[in-house]
Amino acid sequence: MFILGLLIIVGLFVFRSIYKVTQDDRRVDEKLRVRNYITWGACIIGGLLVFFSLLRVVPPGAVGVQVLFGRVLTKATLSEGLNIVNPFVDLHIMSIRTQAYTMSIAYEEGQVKGDDAITVLTRDGLEVKMDLTVWYHLNPDEAATVFQKIGPDYIEKIVRPAARTAIRNITSNYQAIEIYAEKRKELETEIERQLADDFNKRGIVLERVLLRNISLPPKVKNAIEAKLEAEQEAQKMEFVLLKEKKEAARKKIEASGISEAQQIIAQSLIGDRGRAYLSWKYLENLQHLYTSPNNTIVIAPYDKNFIPLLQIGK
């Protein structure tokens, strides 16, 4: 566009130098008017083309990397929106939005069609397949350097191989049962830590690593599940035994308390005071029987010290 505008302006000067009007011409006014129209039209069109060639729009969520005559301007990255640039600059748009790179066993789930899961060896020599998703984005301040040193295809050159290497190196420090069960989150954190370091050195910001699926050989998986089930059952039995021990201790304390209470009561019932208490308790129970609506006749055994009580139905 810039070159076209310049050509129009240059052509205008050529036209004016060729298209000359003299006083001897019969149609002087008409020729002058034509020349003026062409001059103004060419100036306006050429000027607009030159002006608009200076304007570049960078879309949202991206930055513009400027390349001038084969040299990357590493300190002149353009932000999103309208920018005024050198018309001779080639502008390359690079996304800085969050991107996801998935490696999965599913056929069309990841960037690579087919089985793209990561096959790794654990510390105990077992082969494990893992589905992994990496969330990342390009560092806006490093976009020009990434374009210069790595290129626009940094995903295939950096993200994919770095992720696969990190997960293979770190998984080799764990046993299969650990990454399948209690240390899965720890493994994910270790992968994130190593990947973050690798990415930062190359102008890429790691957001998160998602360890989505872990596939073990069927026999190994069944053995691990059986072992975990046995461990859970053992823990359950330990809980039951502990509960029974506590219940036995409680009953022992309760029985001891009852025994002591009985001894105290037995001691208190010896002698005249004990007999007087029993007589009072006897009369109290008779009173309850007497007032009960369910009883028609109350026959109380007696000795020489008591009077029999009889109640005839109302």
Query: Strand content of the residues, in percent?
Result: 15-25%
Tally of helical runs: 8
Q: Roughly how many Å is the radius of gyration?
A: 48 Å
User: What does the largest sheet look like?
Assistant: 4 strands, antiparallel
Please identify, by name, the CATH architecture of the domain at 99-216.
2-Layer Sandwich
Shape, per Cα inertia axes? elongated
Please name the fourth-level CATH homologous superfamily of the domain at 99-216: Band 7 domain
Spans of at least 5 consecutive residues with low confidence: none
CATH class of the domain at 99-216: Alpha Beta
**Helix content bin:** 40-55%
H and E order: HHEEEEEEEEHHHHEHH
Strand count: 9
Question: What is the CA–CA distance across the termini?
Answer: 123 Å
Q: How much is the average pLDDT?
A: 77
Structure class: alpha+beta
Predict the CATH topology of the domain at 99-216: Tetrahydropterin Synthase, Chain A
Protein name: Prohibitin family protein
Keywords: Membrane, Transmembrane, Transmembrane helix
GO cellular component, one term: membrane
Pfam family, one: Band_7
Précis, in short:
With 314 residues, this protein is α+β, with helices and mostly antiparallel strands. Helices cover 51% and strands 18% of the residues. A hairpin with a 2-residue loop joins β2 (62-68) and β3 (71-72).
Description:
With 314 residues, the chain is of the alpha+beta class. Among the domains are: 1-53; 99-216, Band 7 domain (Tetrahydropterin Synthase, Chain A), CATH 3.30.479.30. Helix content is 51%, strand content 18%. The strands form three sheets. Strands 6, 7, 8 and 9 form a four-stranded antiparallel β-sheet that branches. Strands 3-2-5 form a three-stranded antiparallel β-sheet. The protein starts with a helix and ends in a 23-residue tail after the last helix.
